Structure formats: structure tokens, C-alpha cells
Amino acid sequence: MINNNQVCIGKQFNYLKSLSTAEKDSFFQQSKLIKLKKDEIVFLENDRLKTLYAICEGACKFTFIDDKGKEHITKILGKGDLMGRHSIISNKGALFTATAISDTLIYTIHKNTFLQNLEQNNSFCQDVLKGFIYDTEDETETITYFKNNRKLKIRLAGLLLYLSKKFGTQKKGWLNVAPKRKDLANILGTTNEYVISLLTSFKEKNYISLKRDNIKINSKKELLIFINSK
21-29 and 111-120 are packed helices; what angle lies between their axes, rounded to 10 degrees? Predict the structure, then answer.
């Protein structure tokens, strides 16, 4: 059993504020924390899940494979985000594969515990519904930043700003979560080589600094000026 002071339950549950003490105790009795290394798989596309996952620290990506065998990244998730709701509620296979893109701490919630509270507690049910609204708002934000019809260099600049806003930065300004170059390319629908070329160009303009896979935004203001000037 895990004390709820030790974990991040997730903003999409409103941090379980709608549950009574007894309901919370039951919630925690069948739940646990797990640690994943970068590139470890949480669950696979089409898996019928028996567990709901709340990200406490780190980040994961949602992917699917198309008919030609190409991987597509549909979403990047971070602290407070939930994974597996669709499969749990619909009792169908997961729509995507979830993979850690950094060392990640995840709180797992047993399916039966979640569904029982969903059926018996109206306020909790409303919190879960609000979580779907939050997902929609986040998707709208990604469209503003990088899922649009602008030039790739503008979308890459927007993606870097989105990563900074969603996941934050370290004390020296390096992004807490910097996906691999191939993941950045996948998100933007281009090649690794072109992303590397654009990042090098940003570095030469001193918009960013690069160190292996890590990325530091030197000036958010300059990136915004670059985006708005095109």
C-alpha cells in the first residue's frame, strides 16, 4: 500500500479530492509505483489493459504503426497525464503503444478500483469527464504550437517551446524532456536529417544550445520573434 502523500495522482483526477478517506484507502490498496527506464514500453497497441497509468515524473509517447510499418507519434505525455483510460472504460484494446521517452515514474491504478469509483461516485465521474476536456484543450494547444500547416522550421520552433512549457527546464535552462531527433522528426512528419539541419541552424542563430540529445532554449523571446516573423 502506498501513502497518497508520496505520489502524483494526476490533475485529470483532480488529485482524488472527490473521494472520501475510505475510498482513497481502497484506491491505494491495489495500486503501486513503478519506475521505467528511457525507451521501456508501458503497454502495446491493442493490449486490453487491466491497469490505468498516471505519470508522476518523466514523459511518455503514444505511437501507432501504419499499414506500411511506419511509426507515428500522436502525443507526448507528462506529469499528471493519464494513460489507458480508453481501453479501461471501453474494455477494448489500447489505441496506441505507450513508451517512456525519459526515465519515468508511473503510478498504476487497478482497473476494478477505477471503475468502481467511477460508477459509485458522481463527483469522481465528473472529474474524469473533465480530464477528457483537458485532453482536448491540450490538443488545441499543440495545433497552435506545431500541428499546423506552417513551414517545418516554424513548427520545430513551436515544438521546442511546447516541450519547454509542458515539461519545464532544468536550472541551467536545458529541457527536462528532449525527445530523440528521430522522435522530433516523427512528430513533425519529416526526416531525421532535416531536423538535425534545422537544429544546427537554430544553434548558429543562438536560439538554442545542443549537447548530445539535450536541448537548451537560450531565448524564448527570440524563438517567438522568429515564429511570428515568418
Answer: 160
The CA distances from residue 162 to 18, 87, 165, in Å, are 31, 27, 5
Looking at residue 3, its pLDDT comes to 47
Amino acid 15: pLDDT: 72
Inter-residue contact 121 to 13 (CB < 8 Å): no
Q: CA 181, CA 194: separation in Å to the nearest integer? A: 10
The span from the CA of 183 to the CA of 199, in Å, is 14
180: three-class secondary structure by DSSP: coil
Q: What are phi and psi of 47, to 5 degrees?
A: -65, 135
Question: Residues with Cβ < 8 Å from 46, sequence gap 6 or more?
Answer: 93, 94
Q: Which helix (H) or strand (E) holds 26?
A: helix 21-29
Q: What is the largest CA-CA distance in the chain?
A: 58
Return d(Cα 82, Cα 143) in angstroms, integer.
Answer: 20
Q: Which helix (H) or strand (E) holds 215?
A: strand 214-217
Alpha carbon distance 68, 90 (integer Å): 27
For residue 175, the SS3 value is strand
- Lookup result for grid cell 522528426: 185
The highest-confidence range among 2-11, 67-76, 166-175, 192-201, by mean pLDDT, is: 192-201
CA-wise closest residue to 4 among 20, 18, 16, 22: 16
Look at the pTM and tell me if it is higher than 0.85: yes
Per-residue pLDDT reduced to its tens digit, 47-91 = 999 999 999 889 999 999 999 888 999 999 998 899 999 999 999
